[in-house]
Specification:
about 20% strand; Aldehyde Dehydrogenase, Chain A, domain 2; alpha/beta
């Protein structure tokens, strides 16, 4: 992949700030795919080089907005995984573990700067491969990716800790880390995992999701450009068998997995009889609680962002809306009005609010769960004003009103733009309903009273709780859940601890 320069568009506009003959430059409504050139076949990244897979097999990656093939991705087998792990072990033993934290931080800082410089490439590629709106890729995902590398660059030389009577001690890295990431935030999930692992002195073998590998392979180019020593980060692409080979490899010291709860259980069983360390960030069915004294219009925007951001492909999405009974009808009416104004369509259009569902399989799963919700009797609503594109895996944002905790949509993670709405009368009932789930990843609380927010938060069993906002992320803040949402934390100082032997 390489950058091509896009001609800037000029237009003439008359206003009080400029004369009628003056020109200004602006970004086009639809982002050009010429920003990034994609190779017809994308190889594995092992020991600092792009190499062919041992089997010679490749599989297609599809643009979910057009259902057309973008490119082909190498299908790594156990032999390829073994090469990657050996390269990571050699780099750890001979190079990376011997560098000072200050030197490691310099590499991370350099990576962050190059990501900023190539941000437009990354944004377009992420949207093409994933289906998310370019506005989200450009304004949220890619800046956060760079921010995580900057943040952990600063931590790399500050990992020492004090032991009474013994002075300062330096914790040891674990060694070779296997990292398996999902398709909903490909590059951001890679940054969440790679940056702290490298800051702590570990080396990495990363496996992206098979449907969204392109941005991680572009990241490999950045690692080369930054001069990262060969073998410090290796990227093997493939499906479940590739991930299984990585998890079961005997020379892996730690596994970090983000994905479904079902796969997380399989990984947990696989490593149960080993000494491998493990962190799991799994599914969620997060509650979004709105009290009657909340700023209603702002809360409506928060709910929209909580469930329809990234097509609902968010593990911590606010997929269960709990409304105080006295405002339920008013809130639902306002929510309907706002949803009528959402725009679903071409993800490369900067005016698009909701892009394409990531794959045909996910699209069918979402539709099946919606059919189940209709069968169980919930009041279904989707905006009548929206027209979906003829091609692509698109779905209207929707909700089911007046559902109970027993409904399938109240208990199963849909991972799509589907909201389940119920009501409560008291704070205690809100907390009880919010906690009535096998998951424990996130929650949101809206109220003008700080005491009510704190009382509610104290009763919630969730790893991340937002107050008067939702789906806001920062590299300084820890993220993770309880119960079937997994264990361990990523982000912030807490995100370093799973990669250290203290």
């Amino acid at each position: 992949m390489h950058t091509t320069q896009q001609n800037k568009i000029k237009a003439t506009e008359t206003n009080t700030a400029m004369g009628p003959n003056e020109t200004f430059e602006y970004a086009p409504s639809i982002e050009s795919t010429d920003i990034v050139k994609i190779a017809p076949k994308n190889k594995l990244f092992i020991n600092g080089k792009f190499i062919e897979p041992t089997s010679g097999k490749y599989f297609p990656t599809i643009n979910p907005a057009t259902e057309e093939k973008i490119s082909e991705i190498a299908d790594a087998n156990a032999a390829d995984v073994d090469k990657a792990v050996k390269a990571a072990r050699k780099a750890y033993t001979n190079v990376w573990s011997k560098l000072s934290g200050k030197e490691r931080g310099r590499y991370l800082f350099r990576i962050a700067r190059i990501i900023q410089e190539r941000a437009r490439e990354f944004a377009v590629l992420e949207t093409l491969d994933n289906g998310k709106p370019i506005r989200e890729s450009r304004d949220i995902d890619i800046p956060l990716v760079a921010a995580h590398f900057f943040y952990y660059a600063g931590w790399a030389d500050k990992l020492h800790y004090a032991v009474p009577g013994s002075g300062l001690k330096q914790p040891k890295p674990l060694g070779v880390v296997a990292q398996i990431i999902p398709w909903n935030f490909p590059l951001l999930m890679a940054a969440w995992k790679i940056a702290p692992a490298l800051a702590c002195g570990n080396t990495v073998v990363l496996k992206p999701a098979e449907s969204t590998s392109l941005s991680c392979l572009l990241l490999a180019e950045v690692l080369q450009e930054a001069g990262l020593p060969d073998g410090v980060v290796n990227i093997v692409t493939g499906a479940g068998e590739t991930g299984a080979a990585l998890v079961s490899h005997p020379d892996i010291n730690k596994i970090a997995f983000t994905g479904s709860t079902d796969v997380g259980r399989l990984i947990l069983k696989s490593v149960a009889n080993t000494d491998k360390k493990l962190t799991l960030e799994l599914g969620g069915k997060s509650a979004h609680i709105i009290y009657e004294d909340a700023a209603i219009d702002q809360a409506v925007e928060g709910v929209i962002n909580g469930i329809y951001f990234n097509q609902g492909h968010v593990c911590c999405a606010g997929s269960r809306l709990l409304l105080e009974e006295s405002i339920a009808d008013t809130f639902v009416d306002k929510l309907k009005l706002r949803m009528e104004k959402l725009r679903v369509g071409n993800p490369l259009d900067k005016n698009t609010d909701i892009g394409a569902i990531n794959s045909a399989e996910e699209h069918q799963k979402i539709k099946r769960l919606i059919d189940t919700g209709k069968t169980e009797g919930g009041e279904y609503y989707e905006p009548s004003s929206l027209t979906l594109p003829a091609k692509g895996y698109f779905h209207k944002p929707c909700f089911f009103n007046k559902v109970s905790s027993a409904f399938t949509l109240s208990r199963v993670e849909v991972f799509g733009p589907v909201l389940a709405i119920s009501t409560f009368r008291t704070t205690q009932e809100a907390i009880m309903k919010a906690n009535d789930t096998p998951y424990g990843l996130a929650a949101g609380v809206w109220s003008e009273k700080g005491s009510k927010i704190h009382k509610t938060a104290q009763g919630l069993k969730a790893g991340v709780i937002w107050a008067n906002t939702f789906n806001k992320f920062d590299p300084t803040s820890p993220f993770g859940g309880y119960f079937e949402s997994g264990f361990g934390r990523e982000g912030g100082r807490h995100g370093l601890l799973p990669y250290l032997e203290v």
